[in-house]
């Protein structure tokens, strides 16, 4: 009753938008045809964008990996970005990233998809590219070995160096299946990757990369007739082999009795439990009901698992479930990472109780409605971009066998009843069909207990005798097609108004898609933390959604999620924010909740304790991840002695000191309308936005006196070299960092261009040297984060522990090269295009535009900077880039932070940095200047 009363009251406050039809998810309007060679083609025209996405979805995934070669589909995904008969290696990046677009790919159990977004006038060229790599890919020994090394680093980074990587990537599939190849890890294993040969790779390509196993999807700004002609021209002549496509026919036997799998890993701070059950395929009539069941279990803070295990019992710090069904019978999964001090038995009993409730009684109508609203709003957010719409079509095609399901599934979700949810719970979540996976640290393994994971089989390599494609001599290569006339983007036109209480309101109508983002930014962040209370401002901001004077934490979550809205709050170094994303029809109700959490937080003691325990458990996990640990150390190393010189999210020492009165005091001091900015973007006009802002925040009173002054930060700390020893972790995280320019500094634009050259993307110099040329990392990049009075430059890469000194050398060498010689005209043009294209794609989403406008206001810059950005980037010269690097990125001026298994790299680092400080992870204290706990 309270929920309905609150929503009714909201609509009586005069916040309603002008009368309009109920929000709905517009269907994807697309055309479909099939070429004579079997290639399926799907296309959808969108004249509102200056871009186009080209995607090819192949019907081959990890389940199709040859026996003894798990990870092969994924390895081949990497190979597809290299040379073809007419394109030298890395040409795909030149034709996407270097023109302001991007490319990527992913491997699932059932498919591998390749996708690009580029300016629309590059469409013909991208069709030519995709036809090239389908019909004439070069598969050679050098590329194979290089990409195999990169995949090994990806495995180390995603699986072996993460506390729970082994659980999700390795143990869950291996424990859940006995026969079906879904049991094999999609990323593979070091042993199987090492066993592979070039013949294996060529045979795999010949078997699966063929027109009748491919679907081309194009969405964006193009002429349909011209697209059809180009598709016929470039793809129509490709031949389909006579042999049938190899398909998986294995059938997983039903599980007839519950089973338990025990797995262990290094650096596991908290035990975890997963439970899995066999489930149907994606085309099953039961799939929609299982999706709703999944949302009821774990979608948001009002979900059953969160309410029971995290909020009420506090037995878990994180909960999850999944019912994303694949092409062949799959799994339903649920699980938890336990809270500190809780046992496996505690977690297991709590999870089983929730499963039993689903089987024994229907879910409530309120739960059912909330789950549907969340799922449908989520589908809408996925379709905000052209690549998101293409993905929806491709995913439906490759999992359920029918692209049209992308449109039908919304009605199917709406038709699910409470009885359907109970029925599928009873049908699939049986006691006899349950597999329980227990995951604990190696220290918990009983003496003599062997690893439950099967060793990969040793098999002979394939023998390949088919045609082999090589790169044609330069004068004999087919030239790519010419470019068409560019499509000019239409930029949003922000309008702004300051309310009588001092709240600055900025509104920009940016889309007719029924979504609106609202973001309220307060000009106070971690710099305002009291001495010794690192994380206080972050906790203050985070606690806003955990209860007000009239709404409890669970009520806030329930009311928000019932609207299909996403409401969140948090803090950073310079600001705190409350953000909302919702469909327009539900915006007035959602804005009322947003205003309540901003103006009237309760800061209840019991809620603070819950949040503190969750934060401490989260830190215990993060401190076992080398990348996160190195990231935490950056602030105390770079900004020591300033108000930025501590970890913004807090530390185990500081968080335990926080009291409710600390949070209430910070809120009263800094959360005031004349110290805040409200930005609204999406399907909303300025008039509507200003009216909503007045209704929701017009009564927010500013305290007497001026808004508090913001901190001016001027870092002066000397460069340091720090090694954090995390024994047993699978990789080292290498970071070089230093203080940088502010957002308003005249050198800002030369700085962002310099960073783009150095590490701002796949084709930037760091990734070229570390990943592409040497296979030392899954990815190397850098970032220039400019703030109001200072900034932070960071370059990062993760690599096997013993390679850390070499990666550091390469990073420092690229810093020096950037200052020693001017960037070439071609490289400068390409790296500027990366910036301009990325900025344009960010403007294309409601959340992205809201973030850009909010940051401009935070840094006291005019909103007209949105229109000026491209011109200012294009005006940067090679001399300015070189000068910026010389003044701001000298190798001797940077600090070095490496987190990993130090026995493999300490000696090498000390040779390079004799002042190296070694800090054992078990002794780390990020509140201390020397990063070490004081001796007892």
Sum up the structure in keywords.
936 residues; globular; six-stranded mixed sheet; 32 helices
N-to-C CA distance = 56 Å
- Coarse morphology: globular
Computed structural class: alpha+beta
Q: Report the oligomer.
A: single chain
DSSP summary: helix tally: 32
- How many distinct beta strands? 23
Largest sheet, strands/sense/barrel? 6 strands, mixed
What gyration radius follows from the Cα positions, in whole Å?
28 Å
> What is the spatial order of strands in the main beta sheet?
1-2-6-3-5-4
- Helix coverage percent of residues? 40-55%
Low-confidence stretches: 1-22
Beta-strand residue percentage: 15-25%
Describe the structure.
The protein contains 32 helices and 23 strands. The chain is of the alpha+beta class and 936 residues long. The strands form four sheets. The protein has a six-stranded mixed β-sheet, with helices on both faces. Strands 12-13-17-14-16-15 form a six-stranded mixed β-sheet, with helices on both faces. Helix 10 (287-298) crosses helix 16 (418-428) and helix 27 (804-820) packs across helix 31.
